[in-house]
Design brief:
single chain; Rossmann fold; 41% helix; 22% strand
């Protein structure tokens, strides 16, 4: 309290000094640079709290995102909601889009790619039915946000990104935020990650005109594959495929629009 009083006295003294010198500055045409330098000096005595307030704001935005975009659309699994509240989505988007990170739409992340709308991330995660200890493969790391959400639910997440720049950037962000349960590889996701198979769940975050056979093969019996299937130019259907008796059981979930899968799948068009 003594320090606060002392600091207040200093600021008041400086304020008086500013007022006393303004007239002299006006005569010398120095009022603007003089005021700027004095404001800088005053700011030295004001405690830094901007970053904390900004993080508080983002936390509130996350809570609102979950309440109005996720719960309001019928997704109410507590572990999923907590995962979405916990992951700082704004740190996975370019700085110029951070103010929009929790809005109800996708955002560009570079190289023609996007971070999916929060609801789509939530829906795909819910459809995959992730449980603690599940081994999960993600095709299309992108920003790394989906992988971070998955890592809140299980500590065994494997993510493949075909674009080297995005793979390196996402791996760096995930590492800096201590998502240690995620492994990122730069490769063609069409072929999956055979040395880590089988997987309890596979999520594909890019559009495919057919289900890549290697991905289905790498599912455990009873495993779930969530993938947008259809035209890679227009719209697709978000599809849940369960492996039952070694065969696919298909359930269509929602019309969506994703960026297309590239690589081997472009040679395998049917």
């Amino acid at each position: 309290m003594l320090f606060l009083t002392f600091r207040g006295d200093i600021i008041f003294w400086l304020f008086q000094a500013v007022c006393g010198k303004i007239c002299n500055m006006q005569r010398q045409n120095l009022i603007l640079p003089g005021l700027l330098s004095m404001v800088f000096c005053l700011s030295w005595f004001i405690p830094a709290g901007g970053q904390e307030k900004k993080e508080d704001l983002f936390q509130k935005k996350r809570e609102q995102m979950v309440r109005y975009q996720i719960q309001a659309r019928g997704l109410r699994d507590e572990s999923l909601l907590q995962a979405l509240i916990s992951v700082p989505r704004h740190l996975f988007v370019p700085e110029q889009y951070r103010r929009e990170a929790y809005e109800d739409y996708p955002l560009p992340i570079g190289e023609g790619q996007t971070i999916s709308q929060p609801y789509i991330v939530a829906l795909m995660t819910a459809a995959a039915g992730i449980k603690p200890g599940d081994k999960v493969l993600e095709i299309g790391t992108g920003s790394g946000y989906q992988a971070a959400v998955l890592n809140q639910l299980t500590d065994r997440v494997f993510s493949i990104e075909i674009r080297e720049t995005l793979a390196e950037r996402a791996a760096g962000v995930l590492k800096s935020l201590r998502y240690d349960g995620v492994k990122v590889r730069c490769a063609d996701g069409y072929f999956g990650w055979p040395e880590e198979a089988p997987f309890d769940a596979i999520l594909v975050t890019c559009a495919a005109n057919h289900i890549p056979p290697p991905l289905f093969q790498q599912l455990k019996e009873g495993g779930r594959l969530v993938i947008p299937v259809g035209s890679t130019v227009f719209f697709q259907t978000l599809t849940l495929v369960r492996k039952t008796g070694g065969r696919p059981v298909v359930q269509q979930l929602l019309d969506v629009r994703f960026v297309p899968m590239i690589g081997e799948i472009e040679k395998e068009k049917r």
